[in-house]
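Lab notes, practical 5.
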Amino acid sequence: MPDHPMPDRSMPDRLPEPDADARAHSQRLSALLREEIAAQGPMPFARYMERCLYAPGLGYYSAGSAKLGAGGDFVTAPELGSLFARCVVANLLPALRALGDAADVVELGAGSGAFAEAALEALAEAGALPRRYRILEPSADLRARQRERLQAALPPDVVARVEWLDRPPESSWRGILFANEVIDALPTTRFAKRDGDVFEEHVDIDKNGHPVIVDRPADALVGGAVRHVEQSMGAPLDDGYRSEILPQLPYWLQAVAGAQQAGAMLFIDYGYTRRDYYRADRHGGTLRAHYRHRAHDDPFFWPGLQDLTAHVDFTALAEAGHHAGFDLAAYVPQAQFLIAGDIEKAFADAHAAAGDEAGRYALAQQVKQLTLPGMMGERFQAMLLKRGLDDDAVPEALRQFDRSSRL
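Output from the prediction step:
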């Protein structure tokens, strides 16, 4: 099949150059990728993304460099300060209390540990500490940083409730599963429509040793997932249309939540409803690379040194939750989610406790970045799914903001 260049390949020329050690690290991962392609043929893009992010010792999330904050490549909501976590806790308190003393909290991919620290502080203040706060973290480096942070910031009796998991809980449990900016990092399939047929993007190596995209006929899983999207939208995607899809999402969700006997799952991420995700004018997809606080469109720029993400199809997430036995409780923009969690009170309390004008200014900036439409307020969405809980375990304010009908 003909090569298909990724869009906007000129932008990486304006990105900062990595130092010699980082270049050598990326070159080792690139060599590993070339070896696999030479041995097995063109690699599905989802496999390429998985290797770039999670290859042991070499992938972006498996190596030791800083990922989050000013010294990393991007900033997540918990890194801005404690307001985000406090509002999440406020929205989840009714469910936690309904579940009783045996409730656990499971956080997927805890990053620097900033959310866990602020959430545990808020839970302790509310007298609602879970039996266990469990962190599912595949990165040994991040796990070590999380442990060090929590031990330095929290009382020993609170830290004693924290445990780290290598895999999702396999025995039955009750509680809350929380994931902030996790689904966007699941290795995504890239597809294309050509002459009415569905093709899957693969990564090959050209004669000069450079990675290129080639199209191959999609298998039944990928083709079926694209046809399902088209059927639910009531029209086929145009020829030449390229985008992302997660055919594995129902299986992934069942794996992480299948043993959750009762409770809620909260996902916060950037994304769209299906009709918005697959708009005709969004014909190049949503895949982005993040490197030193710059976003660009070249997934081949220094593999292992940059994050690769794609927006979330929240309609697909709701469908996956339904298939896993969960009811959709609420779907709201992040700004409304934080308002329902009483961000006004969280801000007022933090403002009163701030020691100087610089601290009060930082709090105001935090609220703006979390809630303004041009920042995180509308670009990020929150989806709450529940099983074995009454409706009153979901705050009334959150139900009033619900936009589930748009899915």
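Observations recorded by the TA: The longest helix spans residues 20-40. Confidence is low (pLDDT under 50) at residues 1-10, 68-73.
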